[in-house]
UniProtKB/TrEMBL annotation:
Domain of life: Bacteria
Upper taxonomic lineage: Bacteria, Bacillati, Actinomycetota, Actinomycetes, Micrococcales
Pfam families referenced in this protein's UniProt entry, alphabetically: LMWPc
Keywords linked to the UniProt accession: Arsenical resistance
UniProt KW tRNA-binding keyword: no
UniProt-recorded name of the protein: Arsenate reductase ArsC
Annotated Phosphotyrosine protein phosphatase I domain residues: 4-129
Amino acid sequence: MSKPTVLFVCVHNAGRSQMAAGYLRALAGDRVEVLSAGSAPKDEINPVAVAAMAEEGIDIAGNTPKVLTVDAVRESDVVITMGCGDACPIFPGKRYEDWELDDPAGQGIEAVRPIRDEIRRRIQALIGELVPAGDPS
């Protein structure tokens, strides 16, 4: 079976989707293909999101927000949106999830940690669904 591709989408691709992509890469390794994008990407990743992930030993500082493309959605098996709503193109036959998460933009590290931790919980559950339990993890 080919490895599943997961696309994380939020408006700016600077906080939530970058943290989610960072966790999925770190926790699933090469068992899952990870993409992230934004409907209106910022110029750089939220430095507080970078700091929050660094506390977990995950470096997302080198990532760059990317614009959401129809191709990225088409290539993905699972599309997880975080507050971008109607900006995300819908293709039949794909799995869509909308994760209700607070936007870390403009928040301090104390407010971003719980968002980060919630993302980690959801990523761990997602890996459990996408990667069969028989696989060494």
